[in-house]
Amino acid sequence: MANTILTADVIAGEALDVLRNNAVMPNLVYRDYSGDFVPGVGETISVRKPATFVANEYAGTLTVQDATEAKDTVTMDKHLDVSFAVTSKEMTMSIEDFSAQFLTPAMQAFLDKVDGYLIAAGVAAAKKTVATSAAVTQANIVAARQAIVQGKAPTTDRNFVFGPQIEADLLSTELFVNAAAAGDTAGLQEASIGRKFGLDCYTDQNCGNAQGTEDDGLVFHKNALALVTRPLELPQGAANASVANYDGFGIRVVYGYDMQTKTDTVSLDMLCGVKALYPELVSVIKRTVAAA
Q1: Model's pTM, two decimal places?
Q2: How is domain 1-49+69-292 classified at the CATH fold level?
């Protein structure tokens, strides 16, 4: 039987792999994840922030710093859902074919939304904005980088993520020709245009507005922004449901069956919230373009 192969467990695990491997912004920010179930949207939870410490001059006695006090609250206000009908024949597909036809597009829809939330949070929180109506230059990037350096960003995990217009600006210069690609997942490797100025540089189409008249370029340290997920409770009335979670990502899969149309409905959803944890570690380049 088809459902003995494409169970909710199998689909949830495959969906999670697709999500993790194709993410850009979610793979570059701090991710907090707990196995504690939450009932639904609107839950406010406490999350642990990446710790910061002060180097004290030792003068005979120790000053013990408590890292557990670095906490913040995040509202889980984003409940994302993609549901689709599948026929009995489609449920007999291999997981690879099912993933290509259904799960990859579904997870891309999730990623576009989450990218948008993180980018908007970064733009709103940025301590410095570098505005330009001309092609982005080295001076623009250096100015944005300077802001996070002054914010005491650690030297590792610094990123520059930008939209298609800024990408075109950068690829039209000698600065980004033959730069070594970065990233440890397929999504990051495909989006990478290399490492420059101590920043790993990635293209993200969600940094540009729909009209193509403005691009945002975020220069940030990983700890500046947080993506927080919690697994949703399994519904009591669903016999075939599963949750897959790993490394700060969580997906719930629930099956339903419509006897009238003789189709299964596969519903994938996730609950998340985003927040700027350290606004001093993010700056933005705003690139405006005259409307065509």
Answers
A1: 0.86
A2: phage-related protein like fold (3.90.1690)
